[in-house]
Amino acid sequence: MITQIEGLHHVTSMAANAQENNDFFTKVLGLRRVKKTVNFDAPDVYHLYYGDEVGTPGSVMTYFPFPDMNQGVAGAGEVGVTEFSVPVDALPYWQDRLASQGVKSLEKNDNFGESRLEFRGPDGDGFALVERSGDDVRTPWTGGGVPEDVGIKGFSGARLRLRDTGPEAELLRFMGYETVETADGLTRMVRENANGANVLDLESMPSAGRARQGAGSVHHIAFAVPDRAAQLAVRKALTDTGYQVTPVIDRDYFWAIYFRTPGGILFEVATNEPGFDRDEDTAHLGAELKLPSQHEHLRARLEQLLEPIRD
């Protein structure tokens, strides 16, 4: 069994408009933009990162905003809901705040004894705010005007939509997660002694069509490991089990490996090092356009091509 995984590292999705995406996460949800860079494989597209003050692993939502991208189609084989942790009794504040901002599809419900507020992002993205008890001691980012006693602490976890949850559950058990409860078509799996972003719910959707990615779709979900040595150990364990895992890729702010799960979801394993302050000090994270070294020679063209983002 893999023991090095500490919970989620980040979740990466796609959007159709960079400004709208930026405004939703910084002005509506009150997160901090901790990095403004570009897609490694398509440098004419932004890669935007949002999280807590320093972009702590387990707090970071990232986006590729492809201009005018068609909306994704929900279905099996995807991360259907990305879930953020908030303090107990914070949901009334968030219901009022989100409703006043015109956020769509607000719905309060309970899963496994936790109160939740589900809602949709600008591109139809599925999100939930989950009231977590005192076991989540992370400090929320308050720079967006959200009071600390109701602020988002980072991820709680995510809901994976699958035709068959069995193979995915087997993989997650191998990755150190434990099944703690099953109810109403959901299987809850938890990584104990983790970073707070430690809950995955597997939703059984045996008759659902396959998801089709587009704006509002999660591109991949990433798991955190402390360093490169731990990542190499995880990679060896996965490849020894038969998974096709990419070589280690330098993503500037972390090193990454990727593999496809039995249910068709793209998993990443990312290091906590070196972090988002490697090229900007903490006070100015996300302020300037940062380019991977292989794209630095394109700066003049990209600064003309990429639509400026108003803060």
List the helices and strands and how they pair.
Blueprint: E1 8-15, H1 18-28, E2 32-38, E3 46-51, E4 60-65, E5 78-87, H2 91-100, E6 104-111, E7 114-120, E8 126-132, E9 154-162, H3 165-174, E10 178-183, E11 186-190, E12 199-204, E13 218-225, H4 228-240, E14 249-250, E15 254-260, E16 266-274, H5 299-305
Parallel strand pairs: 1-4, 5-8, 9-12, 13-16
Antiparallel strand pairs: 1-13, 2-3, 3-4, 5-9, 6-7, 7-8, 10-11, 11-12, 14-15, 15-16
How would you characterize the overall build of this protein?
This protein is α+β, with helices and mostly antiparallel strands and 311 residues long. It has a single domain (8-305), classed as 2,3-Dihydroxybiphenyl 1,2-Dioxygenase, domain 1. It is built from five helices and 16 strands. The strands form two sheets. It has an eight-stranded mixed beta sheet with strand order 2-3-4-1-13-16-15-14. The longest helix is centred in the last third of the chain and has 13 residues, at 228-240.
